[in-house]
Amino acid sequence: MGNKYDAVIVGGGILGTFHAYHALEMGLKVCLVEKDAYAKGATTQNFGQVVPSGMNTKWQKFGRESLRIYKEIQSQFDISIRQNGTVYLASNEEEEQLLVELRAINSTNDYESKMLTQQECLQKYPGLRKDYVVSGLFFPQEVTVEPRTMIHKLQDYLVAQKGLDIKFDFPVVSCESNGEWVSVQNTKNEEVFGKKVIICNGADFKNLYPETFAASDLEVSKLQMMQTKPQENYNLRGSILTGWSIRRYEAFHECPSYARIKNNEPKESLQKKWGVHVLFKQAADGSIILGDSHQYADVGKIEDLGYDLDMDIDNFMIEEAKKIIDLPTYQIQKRWYGMYSQCKNNDVFQKTIDDNIHIVTGIGGKGMTGSAGFSKKNIATIFNKQKINL
């Protein structure tokens, strides 16, 4: 009976780990299996911000629940959460208009935000250029995480305090229903059994149900990011999102002026070609994370995105960043890319197989912000518990 569980979660990223968390919170016996020696992929290769403010009204509910969950866990166990807030910086009157409209939407949603004057922005964020910023919109409740370490700390917490069973180096090659149980088998013919199996496979579409994924509307996004050398005697608090973020994030799509402002943009630019919006976040060691870009391919053509870093994209982001904030140094110590899956036409990809096998993937850029809240509702649905209102 040692290898039989109420729930087996396939995939140790942020989405799978929070499905395991909420299953444990229900008192279920849970096993999380991960194909690699430790969790990696998009969960550890992202920007490390939790920003419900950037989500549309539907997903902001999940994001705000995620904030509550993150802070509750952080109060018991250090998973690297820092509540420094998020600011959106407008560079012109159009972007400022979108900030005003977003603030009105969030006032209706009872989500705290504050408009900042140009002078308040300059005082709050050292090095911010006066010739860039017009005004800002600040969300004080939002947090940052250290993505390279957070998921490992979260899993340590779930093992030590919640009784989670994790099996690393467990690449799953088959899930087979057999009456009451689903057999989950790896490449070494080891198996565990679950009453329910939840597959959170990220951007891995070759091992399980490849035909299902090939017929889906899933695509993969490749994002380039950089990390400067530690900044001496410099403190930049929270997540800094700039004008191109205002023009990109889903939350702003709900603003009355959004469509008109987007129509005014140039049809062709390097920013559009590479999907760039400039973000800043200071890491725990004092360095600054810079990003990011977006390039897309269908799930069957992931290799088309390549495995190299495009220095033209990185150099473009650095030059644009220098127009926004004067950092003590723009010397880069690390460069990397992350790859996440998303749906072209849906919020997230979900498919149920044989009643007891549930695929959940394609959460896209909403993963770090939305997974904790979304997983709570999804686990309740899968296990037929009372509907949870967020």
TrEMBL record:
<dbReference type="InterPro" id="IPR006076">
    <property type="entry name" value="FAD-dep_OxRdtase"/>
</dbReference>
<dbReference type="InterPro" id="IPR017741">
    <property type="entry name" value="FAD-dependent_OxRdtase_HpnW"/>
</dbReference>
<feature type="domain" description="FAD dependent oxidoreductase">
    <location>
        <begin position="6"/>
        <end position="375"/>
    </location>
</feature>
<dbReference type="Pfam" id="PF01266">
    <property type="entry name" value="DAO"/>
</dbReference>
<keyword id="KW-0285">Flavoprotein</keyword>
<comment type="similarity">
    <text>Belongs to the DadA oxidoreductase family.</text>
</comment>
<keyword id="KW-0560">Oxidoreductase</keyword>
<protein>
    <submittedName>
        <fullName>TIGR03364 family FAD-dependent oxidoreductase</fullName>
    </submittedName>
</protein>
<dbReference type="InterPro" id="IPR036188">
    <property type="entry name" value="FAD/NAD-bd_sf"/>
</dbReference>
